[in-house]
Design brief:
single chain; about 130 residues; mainly alpha; 6 helices
Length: about 130
């Protein structure tokens, strides 16, 4: 199967077995846009709020232990703030502060307490993300 995809797009899923077993006359590219509270990963608390810092931390763990310790001191307050409540709402609140989504929640999520909001905001400022 020859690649007929747009060079500006990234393929995140490709069924190679189907390509082996079948011949495709036409390829149709499809995508979806995830918005607001419908994003499943936010509801599950699987959002990486500090992607760059986390990546640098993982790299430093292999290459430079002192830098890894320094980055851990920056990331630890953020990690603690994200999981201060028993639901993933703090993660959604942090994402809303970073303009990744809106702050409204719906069941099964509950609104973040004001004290948690302050801790999240402070942790984002310590990490120089906000």
């Amino acid at each position: 199967m020859s690649k007929k995809t747009n060079p500006g797009l990234k393929i995140i899923c490709l069924n190679r077995k189907a390509s082996f077993n079948y011949f495709f006359e036409d390829l149709i590219e499809a995508g979806i846009v995830l918005k607001g509270s419908e994003i499943k990963s936010i509801r599950e608390g699987k959002v990486n709020i500090a992607a760059k810092l986390s990546s640098e931390f993982q790299k430093a763990c292999v290459e430079d232990k002192d830098k890894a310790v320094e980055l851990n001191k920056i990331l630890q307050p953020l990690h603690e703030a994200m999981f201060i409540e028993s639901n993933p709402s703090p993660v959604k609140y942090a994402a809303s502060l970073l303009k990744m989504c809106n702050s409204s929640v719906r069941l099964p999520l509950v609104e973040v307490e004001n004290t948690t909001k302050v801790k999240i905001s402070e942790a984002l400022k310590v990490a120089k993300i906000l």
